[in-house]
Design a protein that fits this description.
The protein is an alpha/beta fold. Helix content is about 30%, strand content about 25%. The chain is built from 9 helices and 11 strands.
Length: about 240
């Protein structure tokens, strides 16, 4: 069975209380939860460190598990939730709590990779603009012929020697990383024991720690965009749509 976990913390640096902001009459965490329920996951639970979020989840009938407020990442919070939420879970999907309109098909794509035996799974999407290609806040990924991630970077990769960057998309296919992860239940606890390495320190991308320690990350391609709410300005843009 596969468990969907939605990490949700209250003390966001850029947007405190973000999981509880209202979007069209519902708190964001409820929007994410309801989208996850439309997928093929066997169960969904919110992992939080805050009573206010837990109360909100319980108010709409959702599952919730309390976790430590000291976790450095959503991966660590998922690991504790997996340990404390009852069930015989073979794998876990880590669903971002700030993407209120995540598509169930994207969650299903991760679940399919896990069922095929991928130790870690994530999504990629083709890049179709130079602006996106050069945006350091949108990590890029290069993948092998069998779909495994070779490297993630904030810089455009691969480099096109002798070609102006404005023309790179005409000479190759580039992918951006979509930040949803899946893990085998035997793998997830091990990831939390890894120390930050040189690559992660340089790029500030957690998944590089896993690659640097020899773990394979299998990718699936999605054609659907995700809308993440990182700041109040992101929320304003979403509401304008």
């Amino acid at each position: 069975m596969i468990l969907g976990i939605i990490p949700a913390r209250y003390a966001s640096t850029r947007f405190p209380g973000k999981p509880l902001v209202m979007i069209d009459g519902k708190p964001m965490i409820q929007r994410v939860y309801e989208q996850a329920l439309k997928s093929e996951l066997d169960a969904v639970v919110v992992a939080t460190d805050d009573v206010r979020i837990a109360d909100a989840v319980r108010s709409f009938g959702g599952n919730v598990v309390m976790t430590s407020e000291n976790h450095p990442s959503g991966t660590d919070r998922c690991a504790e939730a997996l340990e404390n939420f009852k069930g015989d879970w073979e794998a876990v999907v880590n669903i971002q709590g700030d993407e209120p309109y995540i598509q169930p098909s994207q969650i299903n794509a991760i679940a399919s990779l896990l069922k095929s035996g991928a130790p870690i799974a994530t999504l990629v999407k083709k890049i179709d603009s130079v602006e996106e290609l050069t945006n350091i806040n949108s990590p890029k990924v290069v993948i092998s012929s069998n779909g495994d991630a070779l490297y993630f970077s904030r810089q455009p990769i691969p480099f096109q020697k002798g070609i102006e960057i404005n023309n790179w998309l005409n000479h190759g296919t580039y992918y951006k990383h979509i930040g949803i992860y899946g893990y085998q239940s035997t793998v997830l606890p091990k990831l939390t024991q890894l120390k930050q390495g040189v690559l992660e320190t340089a790029e500030s991308l957690e998944q590089l720690r896993w690659l640097e320690n020899g773990y394979s990350i299998m990718t699936a391609e999605t054609t659907e965009n995700t809308v993440a709410i990182d700041t109040p300005e992101d929320l304003s843009r979403l509401k304008s749509l």
